[in-house]
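FW: tagging you since you asked about this chain on Friday. Here's the raw sequence from the shared folder, copied in full. Didn't touch anything.
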Amino acid sequence: MNSVKTWCGGIVSGLHFRFLSLVFCVAALLLAAQLASDTASELEKSRQSRFNDAIATTNLIARSFEQQLFNLDLDDLERILASVHKRPNVERLIVIDREGTFFLDGDLMTSPIIPINVTPLQTDAMENAKTTYRVAGPLIEVVEPLLETGNNNFAITPRAIGAVMISFHNPAIGEVLYPMIKARLLSVLPILLFGLILAAKMISQITAPLRGLSQTAMAIAEGDLEREAEGKGALEVRQLAAAFNQMVGTIRQNIAQIYDLAYVDKITRLPNREFFRRELSRAVAKNERTGTSGALLFVDLDGFKRVNDTFGHDFGDKLLTSFAERISDVVRHGDQVSFDAALEAHEITESDDDRKSNTFARLGGDEFTILLPEIREETDTAIVARRIINSMTKPFVIEGKEIVVGASIGIAAFPRDGHDYQTILKHADMAMYQAKEEGKNTFRFFSKELNEQATHRMEIESDLRKALSNGELELFYQPKIDTQTMKVHSLEGLIRWHHPEKGMINPGEFIAIAEDCGLIIPLGEYVIETACKQINVFTSAGHRIPVAVNISMQQFEKAEFSNIVLAILEKTGADASLLELEITESMAMSYPDIALSHIEELKRHGVRFAIDDFGTGYSNLAQLSRLPFDVFKIDRSFVNTLGGSDKHGEAIVRTIIAMAHSLDYETVAEGVETEAQLLALKAGGCRIMQGFFFAKPMSLVNLMLWLEGPELPLSKRVA
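HL: got it, structure written out here
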């Protein structure tokens, strides 16, 4: 297509350019010929005029000197010659006597009484008492004899007593050519420009129809088969446009027929098996290159055979069409693409490896497939399957009859469950039959492990939504200890879930699910609000203890995050200086501008910020130093290296502590579990610590008992 576009663009631009170039060249040749002729003539005239002027000037000077040569002082003669020498085009001026015993050249510094060599030209002029001259390159040399007439006006042959020789500048071709060119351009250029404009206008009228045809050809080469050429201009051009339009119309019809025969299901107008095979093979190849995953949903209608047997195949075909339309409406646009959309975009090409739209196709009978070429997690396909199943609860109305059918769905992930079309399709088919065997109108994964994970994930998501409204969530608190005073420095609030049936659920099981399904936002706000309320409770009980809570990426990246926190502080009336927000190192580095905006806004109201898990990411220290944190938390992975033989890990911890102190940050070591770790951290300069060595996360009731006891348990453990 690019070659066609280039060729078509070159036709019009080439013709237009060549016509204008021809007109310009003809005008330039005419101008050059005229200029050459005028220059030669003008050069001849100029040189002849200079020659005549040289003869006349030399003769005039000689006749003047004949009368006064012996009556004037030599200095006066030199001054006269000097004034003549200043005339334009006079290169040299010499006056000599017949014997060559003195000469005058117009230079007052030169002695006139010196012997000189007489040139042949001067000798000839004085011997013959006639004017002699010589034209040599850039000079015209003229010698005029000085005649001795005395008082005898009847002398027949006057005798030459000296000679005047003057060298004049002979005009070169450049001196004539440049003024000539300037004069001609000033007079001819406006006419030439006007002629070129007029010629361009006339040429444009000639090439405009061809330009329209070339633009149409380029548009068609880029895929716009609806474009038609406009037939304007000469008869031949109109005939060409009509033939062109007819050819394009035929191409459109042929392409539509080819696509229809090759890739369209006649009943549902969805992509057919062959189209789906190509798309699945392409997706598998791309995923293997990029290391990503995809999934195939194999959908089979439950009870379709009964409908077919009862009402006939035509009725069954209408049911299939209605099912295809409903699924196209139910499944998100990002989960499927109709065949018509693919056809209009001309996306069925071998080089189309970047198309991310998913494909909903009919394989045959009552079997359909949905291709998800890219998924974040293999269990995400359960969301699509559930939407399809939920859509089947509404009856189909066919010829006035309400028909209720279900859908059994088998799911196979690739490349995990296969690396080629046949294998992946077979495994999805097996999973679909498993769904039928387990009651129909449901979905199953090919892998037993995946099936269990998806079921558990859906249960967690559903139960977590209820937990937010049923009061099943609670904050546990883990103390941070000042190891110099061995007193509580602050607390970290950690979310816990009391499931009514499954008991206590580890945050590691539901936090990731909450992030994926969007529940992390209300969950995070619940944690902040609960911590603020508890700050008030602690303060009322005489414990002014800061409370730190973890912030998720989804919360922190929102522009309104700081406003939400401030609204919670205002609502609860909590002291902002007792609230500490912990963000991870990767969060701070991923959105440094957003991080700086939120931190500066909230710190103006007294909120403290801690960078969590420091040292586990890939920090840009120059950028990190711009963020006004209050606390560096040393990750437990570094703390675990302390107290043993790993001196390298100890050196890293000391470096982190030293860097934090240089930035005026407070350091907190988390995950401290042994006395050896505590001593190593204290030796390195870390004062605040938390971990099982001091206390595990506790419920509020246990924490209050722990705080109000006669002596903190840790004081007995640590000397």
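FW: Residues 576 and 607 are 5 Å apart (CA to CA).
HL: agreed, and The chain has 24 helices and 21 strands.
FW: great, closing this out.
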